[in-house]
Design a protein that fits this description.
25% of the residues lie in helices and 21% in strands. The protein is an alpha+beta fold. It folds into two domains: 5-138, N-terminal domain of MutM-like DNA repair proteins (Alpha-Beta Barrel), CATH 3.20.190; 151-272, Helicase, Ruva Protein, domain 3, CATH 1.10.8. The strands form three sheets. It has a four-stranded antiparallel β-sheet, with no helix packed on it. Strands 2-3-4-8 form a four-stranded antiparallel β-sheet, sandwiched between helices. The structure holds zinc ion (ZN). Residues 253, 255-256, 258, 273, 275-276 line the site of zinc ion.
């Protein structure tokens, strides 16, 4: 289950409440070599030894990526892109499996793990731009939670493009940051738009449906503690259920009864209703 904008933000807000001022006493990591093999990154991005003894300053998230900022210009960048878990473990409590574990001087522990493709880096401020995810999310497109993410702007940025929707909404060059495949299929179903439609071919009503859909899905997921199967910093599960996605496999469309179809699209799969979402 991917971590997208709402879930990354929930983690960051909870960590911001709990972690600033805590000093890192020790660290431990597991399987980092394997992660290095999976990610497009450099060895020095894993210099975790340099964060021991540092104090946590602030935690922020943008898009799907979380930044733990420490005093002295050091950071941990965590992008649990295709699934991940972060848990704050209190002294005496048994912690879950981890890729990176930070033990603080008050004996509480931050446990971080990726359950799918993703990264955890230790980076100095001046190397942040070398992280693909940091660059994409912190320096990339507009976030649906930015005040600048207005209908007028969306209409121009996305609506005038003669390209299919996925690269405009998902990935490195997208105009919107924080959306992965899960939100993409959820939003398209709500807006009754076929994924292969080119943005410029959309009616104003469909385009507005996409814009409203993005805001609705992000807003609801923040309100409901993330999507189902997500668990927050304290292990509390989210309650948002997607309107479309793998949970609709072999099921019927709730609007019209047509069997839901799985379509290979844009380097992944998109579930859709072939009747409600026509090309
Ligand atoms: Zn339908």
């Amino acid at each position: 289950m991917s971590i997208e904008l709402p879930e990354a933000r929930i983690f960051a807000e909870q960590m911001q409440e709990a972690l600033p001022g805590k000093r890192i006493e020790s660290i431990d990591s597991h399987d980092m070599k394997r992660m290095l093999g999976l990610g497009v990154c450099k060895e020095h991005l894993f210099d975790f030894g340099s964060i021991v003894g540092r104090t946590v300053k602030a935690i922020t998230a943008r898009g799907n990526t979380i930044r733990i900022k420490m005093r002295g210009g050091f950071n941990i960048v965590h992008g649990p892109e295709y699934g991940g878990r972060i848990r704050l473990v209190q002294p005496g409590e048994k912690g879950p499996k981890y890729h990176l574990k930070l033990e603080f001087s008050d004996s509480s522990v931050l446990s971080m793990r990726n359950t799918g493709m993703g990264v955890i880096y230790a980076l100095k401020d001046e190397h942040l731009h070398e992280s693909y995810l940091y660059k994409r999310d912190f320096q990339g497109g507009l976030s649906p939670t930015d005040p600048e993410f207005t209908w007028d702007k969306f209409k121009i940025l996305v609506g005038e493009e003669n390209r299919q929707l996925k690269p405009l909404l998902v990935g490195m060059d997208a105009f919107v940051t924080g959306i992965s495949n899960a939100t993409f299929q959820d939003v398209l179903f709500r807006a009754k738009v076929h994924p292969k439609t080119k943005a410029r071919a959309l009616s104003e009503e469909q385009l507005k449906g996409l814009y409203d859909g993005i805001q609705h899905v992000i807003g609801e997921r923040l309100k409901l503690g993330g999507k189902e199967r997500f668990t927050d910093l304290y292990g509390k599960p989210g309650e948002y259920v997607a309107a479309m996605g793998p949970n609709y496999k072999n099921r019927e469309c709730p609007n019209c009864g047509t069997t839901i179809k799985k379509l290979a699209h844009g380097g992944g799969h998109v579930y859709l209703c072939p009747s409600c979402q026509t090309e």
